[in-house]
Fold:
Amino acid sequence: MAARFDVERFPRVSLGHGPTPLEEMPRLAAHLGGPPLLVKRDDCTGLALGGNKVRKLEYLLAEARADGADTVITVGGVQSNHARQTAAAAARIGLRCELVLPRMVERYDALYEENGNVLLDRLLGAGVHVVQDAEAATAKVLELGAAAEAAGGKAAFLPAGGSTATGALGYVRAAIELTEQCESRGLAPSRIVLAASTGGTQAGLVSGLAALESAIRVLGIAVYDTPEATAQRVRDLADATSGRLGRSRVAGDRIDVRGGYLGDGYGIPTEGMREALDLAARLEGLLLDPVYSGKAMAGLVDLARSGSLGGRNDAPVVFLHTGGTPALFAYGS
Ligand SMILES: *Cc1c(COP(=O)(O)O)cnc(C)c1O
Structure:
């Protein structure tokens, strides 16, 4: 595939297990009465409980290392999965890691601030800096960068979610992997459904599928803010990513983000999320997370029930499980 050649020329450190499994969800599909359902298990990327950021970090840390960095600094909510995966990736290749975690969700209890991802961040040896807001986070990032330089080192800064054109290359590669899996099994899915927040995962998939001239469409479920704002981030990142691949801008109809499943805000539980977690667990033995994959699955459940994804004789739909399950332990209440 020409697209494989496009992405394989960028430096990458191998961090994840792959190809991740592509599994059927027959009991969930029968229960919902919609199309056949598959799940692409990117919660099983392997590194320190896995998740979608591992694929992005393979390219981001290759770039940081090539730039001579000895420290990586990144930001995310207190229960950030991206922060935990960055801490693990940095440990794996011998870089120091500093995590700046603004309080993006109104929770101050011990479960939220000490369990789940935060517990793992500390275990993985990262510096953990919980700060009040985005402004304080910026100041902290600058301070930590200056400290790294004063110590004779160099810091690489990774933005929230690892969503740059470099990070998105991980999901260009994932698009190729998934396409090959589908082809070898004679599957022709109509859509991939996933949680969209900073947008790099969706942008990488869209850019990769466009480069492959694939008929598979990508449907993002907004779990961080409005679908319009999310779609704009996906658009911008897809343009930057396609540019790096030396390809033209992806067609506008490939960028599709739906709203309606966020509820009161990022990280705040919804009824639909609770139902989706229960259905996936009880019908498929599949664990979702409360912030991302649970709300994305709430979207898939709703769309499958309403018939808008087709019926049981139609093309299958792939749910991309982006990980996040360690956050379950911070959301016990
Ligand atoms: C970061 C994350 C996402 C969102 O990915 P983006 O590339 O930021 O849109 C989805 N699910 C989980 C579990 C995540 O940690």
Remarks:
- The longest strand covers residues 96-102.
- Residues 22-51+164-330 form a domain with the Rossmann fold fold (CATH 3.40.50.1100).
- The first helix runs from residue 2 to 8.
- The chain has two domains: 22-51+164-330, 53-162.
